[in-house]
Amino acid sequence: MSLAQRLAVLVVATLICSTAFAATDPLLTALEESKASGKGLSFHVNGQTIAGVVVSVDERFVVARSLAQGTIVIRLDRIDAVAGFVVLPAERK
Question: Distance between CA atoms of 91 and 93, rounded to whole angstroms?
Answer without folding.
Answer: 6
